[in-house]
Amino acid sequence: MQDNDLVRFSIAVPAGLLRQFDEQIERTRGDRNRSEAVRDLIRSSIVREKLRTPEEEVIGSLTMIYDHHAGDLTRRLDDIQHDYTDEIVSTLHVHLDHHNCLEILALRGTGERVYELADRLLALKGVSHGELTCAATEGSLGL
After folding, report:
1. Which residues, 6+ apart, have CB-to-CB distance to 43 below 8 Å?
2. Domain check: are 107 and 84 in the same one?
3. Quick check: is 2 in a domain?
């Protein structure tokens, strides 16, 4: 069997879950079918796992919402970010209201450093929400 050969397999899922999945495919993927959607999910899962590999080169964005009045949070955020100047490509800071800020960091570097940075920032008291979204740099995953 070659890597590009198609292989049929079956899975069992609750009817309601399959109905929701089919509706999502119709709504978001247009003319793609269920097999294409499952292949996309498998690829996405493999990519997510590989991105956690310490030496893998990744690009990504870290989105955080925080209360800038919380203790010395702003100083601690800045201190940590200054430790990762090679990984932080750009930042966007938005004042949402009198207390809350939205900050988005564009990141590039090894998975180890990018995930380490995100973990350190998101663990700070006063950060109410945050999410790191990563992708591999072109050609690094070989999918």
Report:
1. 143
2. yes
3. no
pLDDT in tens, 31-43: 778 898 898 888 8
Helices 34-51, 15-29: axis angle to 10 degrees equals: 90
Handedness of CA 17, 23, 25, 28 (dihedral sign): negative
**Number of domains composing the chain:** 2
Q: Indicate the pLDDT class of residue 116, thresholds 50, 70 and 90.
A: very high
User: Could you list the residue range(s) of the whole structural domain that residue 35 is in?
Assistant: 15-51
In a domain, 108, yes or no: yes
> What are the counts of helices (DSSP H) followed by strands (DSSP E) for the chain?
4, 4
Extract the tokens encoding 68: 């800038």
3-state secondary structure of 21: helix
Instruction: Decide if pLDDT at 143 tops 50.
Output: no
Rounded to whole angstroms, the Cα distance separating 79 from 72 reads 11
Which CATH number fits the domain that encloses residue 69? 3.30.70.1150
More confident residue, 123 or 51: 123
Q: Which helix (H) or strand (E) covers residue 36, if one does?
A: helix 34-51
